[in-house]
Fold GGDEF domain-containing protein.
Amino acid sequence: MLEGFSLNADTEGKEAQSLMNATERRELEMKNLQELADVDGLTGILNRRAFDERMATAMEADAAGPLSVVVMDIDHFKDLNDHYGHDLGDRVLRDFGKILKSKARPRIDHAGRIGGEEFALGLVGLNADAAQEIAETIRREAEDQLMFSGEEKIKITVSCGVVERREGEKLPALMKRGDETMYTAKRDEEDGTKGRNRVITAK
């Protein structure tokens, strides 16, 4: 009788373990699917929806602390794509995504591709001065990249707009200011200063 009881208990234990393993596998599969849904397939960083969701969550979690966003656009990307082809254009986007990802602190900051050649880096807990330094590093690294089409060397540059959250400001307003500041960086100035390949920080 004891042996029979032991056998039944052992069988039940294996069934419970098997059920637990199946549940864990399903949870892992769901997690992997969610991660795939959040990631831009070309660059490997967050897509626009996931970037907005995570930034909104970060802003709600700490409504008073410093938080900045760098909005970036690859200069002359359409011309580059048209002249050299989409394969090189995709390579430029992938390489820039790697630069951006390397500047995002894991589980703190959020790097995303928010448009065709437009990117954003959400810097949680950092003010505009700190964000500007990071933006300058990104700009320099992009400019230093070696990109070739056959024997021709191609220079890649980015324009960056830095904004720090204002008191009570929500994500849509913050991103709108970031976008406007980035486009200011792209424009030529009346004093003769050339636009593009620079960082502008909103006042």
Q: What stands out?
A: DSSP finds six helices and seven strands in the chain. Residues 2-38 form the longest helix (37 residues). The mean pLDDT is 89.
